[in-house]
Design goal:
mainly alpha; 4-stranded antiparallel sheet; elongated
Length: 413
């Protein structure tokens, strides 16, 4: 055996190790091998648990009853002005803005959101519960319980295009379709009731105003008849023009007051439209004060015969005002009656719910896959925890720390 002399030894240098990538690959293989070893040690758990859960899922889903979905599509009414609102705008020139004032105050809502809310209302739910005896069908004694079950089986959505979709789930396909169609029917009935109620309130308002104005008109006519029994004092053209102007201005003021009162129900005090309307009303009041107390009245007094002529002028002015107001309210009342008589909210049924020929639930394959995958994840986590605990017990230092942890959380052996 030949030994090299000390002088023949080469100095140690830190040359790069060409086998470094192979070492990293070896570590990855070792880690993968460790993982495979862990899986092999707990193969019964990793394989058995998902297999058992998958079999149970198959059995459970096969025993699930098929659920069918009845679907109906409806198109809510479009946002159109009612006949009364159109007449209000037409009467603007004739009545000094009364019609336009009321029509402008009517708010417009989103029909899709409005009717979805009506379909989900307690009123329709209670009607359907009574109509189909859902308390017995859902086996609940309380009305609220039946209402909750019905809500859980019903899906009502509004698409971007405005079409409302009503879907009802049930084990009986005929019942699912019937219940979905019943939603649409009860919505139509409810909209008719609400539309009639709204139109009736409008008709009642105009009816009350008309009766009050009629009483004032009759009183003005009687007063004028009694005051003019001695003969009608002749009034010239200027006096008649003043009567017409004053009466029309007072009618405009009445219309503006109606507009302001309606705007206050939805507008704040700093609303520009409200402030402008109030300024216009103030201007009308000043103009009326000028007509009644300045040159126009003096001119009318000169055109009449003394004090009696002035009194007659005032009587004729009040009479003309009541006649004009009665004429306006009579037209409003007739249009309100027309709105009340017709169905202003026409709901169109795009797709009536038909008996579904295919089930919608349950999706058995998806359920089995989800439950099996969840069991597999649980088994892997369980195996990792068990392996970590076993290694901790094998390592004295980690075993001591594990014992301390158990004592700290109260898990004593």
């Amino acid at each position: 055996m030949i030994e090299s002399a000390p002088g023949d030894r080469q100095p140690h240098t830190s040359a790069p190790d060409p086998s470094a990538p192979q070492a990293a690959t070896s570590r990855e293989e070792v880690d993968l091998l460790d993982l495979l070893i862990i899986l092999a040690r707990h193969k019964k758990l990793v394989i058995g648990l998902p297999l058992v859960v998958g079999i149970l899922a198959v059995v459970i889903t096969l025993n699930m009853a098929d659920v069918f979905t009845g679907a109906a599509k409806i198109l809510p009414p479009q946002q159109n002005q009612s006949a009364a609102s159109l007449m209000l705008s037409q009467l603007t020139s004739a009545a000094g803005g009364i019609g336009g004032a009321v029509g402008a105050a009517l708010p417009i809502k989103n029909p899709s959101d409005l009717y979805v809310g009506m379909l989900k209302s307690r009123t329709i739910a209670d009607i359907l519960i009574t109509r189909f005896d859902l308390r017995n069908r859902y086996e609940t004694k309380l009305q609220s319980g039946a209402r909750g079950r019905l809500e859980s089986k019903t899906t009502i959505t509004a698409g971007k295009e405005g079409i409302i979709l009503v879907e009802v789930d049930d084990y009986d396909p005929k019942f699912a379709a019937a219940l979905a169609n019943a939603y649409v029917e009860e919505l139509m009935n409810l909209t008719q009731v609400l539309a009639v109620t709204e139109a009736s309130q409008r008709r009642l308002f105009f009816e009350q105003q008309l009766m009050r104005t009629k009483e004032n008109l009759i009183q003005a006519e009687d007063t004028a008849r009694r005051s003019l029994q001695g003969g009608l004092v002749k009034i010239d053209d200027q006096g008649r023009a003043m009567i017409e102007t004053t009466a029309r201005l007072r009618a405009q003021m009445s219309g503006k007051e109606i507009q302001i009162g309606a705007m206050r129900t939805f507008a704040a005090e700093d609303n520009p439209e409200l402030q402008r309307a109030e300024k216009e009303l103030d201007a009308m009041r000043r103009e009326l004060a000028k007509l009644e107390g300045s040159g126009s009245t003096a001119a009318a007094r000169d055109g009449a015969s003394g004090g009696k002529g002035l009194d007659n002028l005032r009587l004729l002015r009040d009479l003309r005002y009541n006649e004009l107001l009665y004429e306006v309210l009579a037209r409003q009342y007739e249009m309100a009656r027309i709105d009340e008589a017709k169905n202003s909210a026409l709901i169109q049924v795009l797709d009536k719910a038909v008996e579904p020929d295919r089930k919608s639930k349950p999706r058995r394959a998806i359920l089995v896959l989800l439950w099996t995958f969840a069991a597999l994840v649980l088994a892997l986590v369980w195996a990792a925890i068990a392996e970590s605990a076993a290694r901790a017990r094998a390592d004295p230092e980690r075993a001591t720390r594990l014992t301390v942890l158990r004592h700290a959380i109260g898990l004593r052996r």
